[in-house]
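Changelog note: in this version the structure field was regenerated for every chain. One regenerated record is shown below for reference.
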Amino acid sequence: MLIIRDLEASINEKDILHKISLQLPKGQITALMGPNGSGKSTLARIIMGDPEVQVTGGQLLFNGTNLLDLEADDRARLGIFMAFQYPQEVAGVQLFQFLKVAYEARFGCQINLIDFKKIVSQALKTLNLEENFVKRPLNVGFSGGEKKKCEIFQLLVLKPELAILDETDSGLDIDSLRIVAEGIRQAKETNPEMSILVITHYERILNYLKPDRIIIMHNGRILKEGSDLLLSEILEYGYANIINAGN
């Protein structure tokens, strides 16, 4: 689905990523981990099309389409979704209306209001959210946990082909984490061919999601790939062993 070859990138002329190569196959969950400053969020921003990140080399292919030729909104229409670490507030834009416009842009057709309300109601139920949640301005006055739930709520409604979850679990208490993880799991069940890239520092959400593989980044490079055994190594020794072996 997503193929990254020798990707290099910089921000404000500072090199961040160095020849990153990886693939995100259809239907798989990939966890991307590593110390702060490793380049994990920068990679996510590149996939989504953040203009503040300059790609200086390499390829980024999504189902055969060169993403580097496309703006962020065009990538979203292709089915790429990103749940942000720090979701932005958008005053004056009701969540329901925002999502309806996004849904119609995503699937290239208009949807009957009654049918869309059914989709929204099911997503609200999955995340234990009240019906009036969608009447609020997008993220305005939301708690940190509500903002994260709102991101997963959008994931449930929009049914992307590729979902990038950038530290969606950060700042969540155990109950909110369980609800968010259950929302992601149900989104995957109803959309089994969706690929998910989970960027995280913590094993807690991975215990719920059971990733197919784990990738470790450091200083803008991929150091190691593995299974849940790699996660056990990180929990016991931290990243030091992996970083030292890669140097």
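Spot check on this record: DSSP finds nine helices and twelve strands in the chain. The domain at 2-246 is CATH 3.40.50.300 (Rossmann fold).
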